[in-house]
Task: structure prediction
Amino acid sequence: MTMRRVNFDLDVLRTFVTGIELGSFAKAADRLGRSTSAVSAQLKKLEEQAGTAVVRKSGRGMVLTEAGETMLAYARRLLELNDEAVAALHGTELEGWVRLGLQEDFGESLLTDVLGRFARAHPRVRVEVRIARNTELLDRVTSGRLDLALAWDAGAAGPHAERLGEVPLRWISAAGGPAPWLAGGDPLPLVMLEAPCVMRSAATAALDRAHVPWRIAFTSASLAGTWAAVAAGLGVSLRTAVGLPPTVQALAPHDTPLPALGTLGLCLHRAEAESSPPVQRLATLLAQQWQGLALAA
Result:
């Protein structure tokens, strides 16, 4: 028996992915310039092509079915390949260079994927990357030594900053389960980056509000050093779930007696209001990739 050949509509897939990433198909309709009825028709078409439901109602919203989770992963890959092909066809038009700054959190998750795609599509654009802390990144953008920078929102956004979204802050412990001192009465040992650090300030402020005694057990100049100390069981840290190595884990709120935490925003900073075409193209790719990372976190 020959399987029926199905050709998914990329326009429909883009609507589906946009709706899931925005958390609302009504917002997707507004983002894509379509009516809500047109978006509903596209979702119906997608489910007809897939032969199964990809979303289901949950309260007032919609959530992915098991088939929908599978479809989302493939839809993103198909759209990335489509967009890369389009960019490659026009890639010879882009020349110049882009100076990009990133937090250590995004070194592996963004550099490998986004910069690889960008380099293939725009071989005549040179990209220089600097991994640094928030304060340095913002200083370099403001002084014109970086064209773009992804930095956590520490309340010091520059004049050309675009807020990409928010991600939950999480307590981080060694992989394999919470350490026994999480439930003890001694001061909580903290593993933190050197001050000033927005995560360090958030951790100590949350513990002070909850009247939880704490002490700085380990201070590191790098995120790699922080993860090594946490993995060794020297203490607990605070970060987001983005870019964590397998040696540590983000604790779910119900798995720890530590105080609940809020969210942290991420901003894409530009040195100039009107960016050059190469800078604008890379900024678009970074924003798109971040949506996927934030959804997973």
In short: The radius of gyration is 22 Å. The first strand starts at residue 55 and ends at 58. The mean pLDDT is 84. Residues 125 and 170 are 37 Å apart (CA to CA).
